[in-house]
Amino acid sequence: MDYLYSIVDRKSLALRGLVAVIFGVIALVATGFVLDFLVYVFGFFAIISGILTAGIGLSSEKTELPRWLLVTTGILSILVGIFALVTPLIVAIALTLFVAAWFLITGVTDIGLAISHKKTHHRILLALSGIAGVVVAIILVFTPLSGAYTLVWVLGIYAVAAGFISIFLGLSLGNEKSAIKKLTSL
Fold it and tell me: For a Cys-Cys bond, which of 2, 17, 128, 148 suits 167, CB 3.0-4.6 Å?
C-alpha cells in the first residue's frame, strides 16, 4: 500500500460549490429546461459514442470484439441518440420508469431480506426501507412525467446542499492548501 496525496485548493472547492448551487437553483426554478437539457446531453453523447464505436468497427482490422458487433452497437447508439433528441419527453419518461424499476427491485429485495433474516438487527428498518422503495416505484409508474420533474427537483436540492457544503469547506480551509491523505493500494 502506498499513500497518495492530493491537493485541494480552497478556491477551486468554493468555485465548484458555487457552480453546483447555480445548477441546483436552475434545476429548481427551470425544471423543464434542465430535464430537456439532460436528455439532450444524453442524446448527443449517444450519437458521438455511436459514431466512434461504429468508426472503430469499420476502420480497425483487428479488434477484440467482432467488427459487425461494433458497427451494430454504434448504429443502435446513434439511433437512440437521435430518438432522444427528437422525443426528449418520451426519453425522460422512460428514464423515470427505469428508476421506478430500480426502486421496485431494491424495495422487494429489502422486504425479502427483512422477512428471511430473522436474526438481523433492525429488520423493521430494512422492511420500512423496502416498503418505501415499492411505494416510490408505484408512484413513479403511475405518474412518470411528474416523476421525471421530481427527479430533477431532487437533483437540484442535492446540488444546492452539496454546493453550499463545498463553498463552506473552501472558505474554511484558509489561505493555505490542504493535503488530504488517501490510502490506495497499488
Answer: 17
Domain count, the chain: 1
Separation CA 75–CA 79 (nearest Å): 6
- Does residue 120 fall inside a structural domain? yes
Is residue 111 one of the residues assigned to a domain?
yes
Q: Which residue bears the cell 430535464? A: 35
Does the pTM of the predicted model rise above 0.85?
no
What Cα–Cα distance (Å) separates residue 45 from each residue in 28, 34, 63, 75, 89? 24, 16, 23, 13, 17
Give 52's Cβ-side CA count (13 Å radius).
Answer: 6
Mean of pLDDT over the chain: 85
Element (H, E) at 184: strand 178-184
Instruction: Count CB-CB contacts under 10 A for residue 115.
Output: 12
In this predicted structure, the answer to whether residue 148 has a pLDDT above a threshold of 50 is yes
